[in-house]
Amino acid sequence: MENVAIHYQDLGRIEYKTAWDMQEQLLQSNLDIKKRNRDRELANSNEPIEITQNHFLMCEHDPVFTLGKSGHMENLLVNNEYLLSKGITFFKTNRGGDITFHGPEQIVGYPILDLERLKPDIVLYMRNLEEVIIRTIAEYGIVGERTQGETGVWIDKDIPHKARKICAMGVRTSRWITMHGFALNVNTDLSYFELIIPCGIQNKQVTSMERELGHTIDLHEVKQKIKHHFKDVFGVVIEGE
Fold this sequence. Notes:
The protein is an alpha/beta fold. It has one domain (5-39, 52-239): 2-Layer Sandwich (BirA Bifunctional Protein, domain 2), CATH 3.30.930.10. Helices cover 30% and strands 29% of the residues. It contains 5 helices and 12 strands. Strands 1, 2, 6, 7, 8, 9, 10, 11 and 12 form a 9-stranded mixed beta sheet that branches. α3 (122-138) crosses α5 (219-234). The two termini are 24 Å apart.
């Protein structure tokens, strides 16, 4: 595996659509590079091959519900008028998964990676994303787990009526370029999740680091730990702040 460089940006608090558009632009830029390389190969050109660029964006969003391409509208339990009255936006997205919430004090991570420069295996990619979060929350004494068939990071996954999700995940890939990613509840207002069936999974709860530990957590500190574990799990170099 080559020593791939990842360009990191902390976008701060940003509108969901603005971050989505940014991801689409970065993904399209890489797709354009791949197309030019393919055209050169077909033309037997001696021009040098271009290298795709890898990015890792982290941010917070204003309150928003997003529905994945395989999601079901019935998992949104309120109507549009209610959303407008509470200042909550809604988007149908092109990621995998069902419905989830993004909001303040939640760390959202968007890796735009060329898996052909890492390992072209989407299942491994998802397990690695989960591993980054599992290692991160372990530093705070929180035991995160995977559960079969339900992407993300869970706590007490095998205990009936106690299983709760702390990090949701949903991605899109095109020609092995990824976008979208994970949402880790740090000090997130969990009452928003009462307005949906999170990830379309009935009878399971949602939690946050704050709820598990009984006190607020420094968001910047958690981001630094995520970056550290992302670098180790994926075996990459992270550049930029």
